[in-house]
Design a protein that fits this description.
This protein has 123 residues and is of the alpha+beta class. The termini are far apart. The mean pLDDT is 85. The chain has a domain at 54-122. The chain has a 4-stranded antiparallel β-sheet with strand order 1-2-3-4. The chain has helices at residues 2-30, 34-53, 84-92, 96-101, and strands at 55-57, 71-82, 104-114, 120-122.
């Protein structure tokens, strides 16, 4: 029971901290001059796009809409198939290693996203 109370308190404190931070951010933005506010919000939007879709790649052309200079790319890891080595280790350890590593292998790909048409693809 004490554990659930602790979890509830941590959750409530986290929500309160998030609300206070959002209010402080709102006050900071509203105190800015209009030009400064616009610049700040554009930089923030660019930062969010970079985190979500990666850096802008000006040389790529979208295969869907043929626009150039609006493609964002980033490296991603995708699960693909079952790794033979991991399956063998799981058999030898009675399945214990499977909890630590899983059975699937990962493949490194490049994910691209077109800001013009919203199309996303991997290669």
């Amino acid at each position: 029971m004490d554990f659930l109370v602790l979890i509830a308190v941590i959750l409530i404190v986290s929500v309160i901290i998030a609300i206070v931070a959002a209010m402080a951010e709102s006050e900071k933005v509203s105190a800015m001059a209009p030009e400064e506010r616009e610049s700040y919000l554009q930089a923030r939007q660019e930062s969010l796009l970079n985190m979500q879709h990666g850096q802008l790649n000006s040389a790529m052309i979208c295969p869907h809409c043929q626009s150039q200079g609006k493609i964002r790319t980033k490296v991603v890891d995708r699960k693909k198939g079952v790794s033979g080595g991991k399956a063998t280790a799981a058999l030898l350890t009675g399945g214990v290693s499977m909890f630590a590593t899983g059975l699937s292998r990962k493949e490194r790909l490049t994910q691209a996203h077109c800001s013009n048409c919203g199309n996303s693809w991997e290669f």
